[in-house]
Model the fold of this input.
Amino acid sequence: MTDSPSDLLSALDRGESLPASFYTDPSIVEQEMLRIFRKSWNYVGPAAELAQTGDYVTGHAGNVPVVVVRNDKELAGFVNVCRHRRHQVMKGRGNARLMQCGYHAWTYDLAGGLRRAPRAEAEPDFRLDDFPLLPIRAEAVGPLVFVNLDPEAPAANDCYGPVLDLIAKSGIDLATLTLHSRSEWQGRANWKAMLENYLECYHCAVAHPGFSAAIDVRPDVYTLASHGWFSSQAGRVRPAALEGKSKVELYDVRGEVAESQYHFLWPNLTININPGFPNLSVDVWLPDGPNATRGFSEQFFGPGVDEGFAQALIAFNKQVAQEDDDLTDSVQHGLVGGLPDRGQFLTKSEQLVIQFQKMIVRALDGQSPV
Ligand SMILES: [Fe+2]
Done:
């Protein structure tokens, strides 16, 4: 028995969650790849790493390898897969004059045109012009660069532009942040279960003693707001934390940033700002089959932020992430069993999770998620 999209949306209005199979069924992941990740803006990396001609950043739009390169005209995005035998052309990040595939040395220029294919001159009807890298959209929103495989999708700035204004209000000047470090990670739960955990702080007081000592997580103070393509949570630093009177050991939260912000940009980018000196971190969450997630984090800091603060904040974020992983690992075990089939949300504390699940339902049905 399967519920129709309108049944699922009505159930969500009553606070009834998506069925457990949405988190365990491999066919759902296949549909998500096609209907969500191929139609949405996928974050690939910071604009600062794409500032000079030849700078390139590789990434994924769902399961499609992508590359964004700065050529002499623009920021250009391509499917990072050779037209020859479908080997990935570029690896990691860096600067290159040409994009050369490491398999048979097919070589593309920075506009994606195939310039050279060894031995191709011996083929009677082979034309280099017929095999450019497949172009995709690449757009920057402030300092963040995204790609989209859907030519019809709304512009990235139309979806996410307003989040820049909210971030500016935290006391951070995005233009001055620099990338400090990047790491890759793996999770043992469905990507949606991990993001749904991100989208509420009902669990914070229970499961995050350090976080809750730094940030006031009481429901009348900690705010949740949906903005369509993105949603935002915000909390104030606790006075006791500022005075160094927390009961748990904390990093030094004193600094110009007094408001923490946690933004979710559909479908799978999260942006964190914590109290203290100017800082921002991002995470990308990608399905790795139904029962696992893979992602990467990037940590940015403002000018003059010392390494001690950077390391202490990174450790704080790791601790919170470990606590969250323990929660979502357990949730995934519950989902795999399939009973109970539905969870029950609290509609006044978990409205962003409900909103997210509605976006999933609409997108899987071929509708606009917003
Ligand atoms: Fe959490």
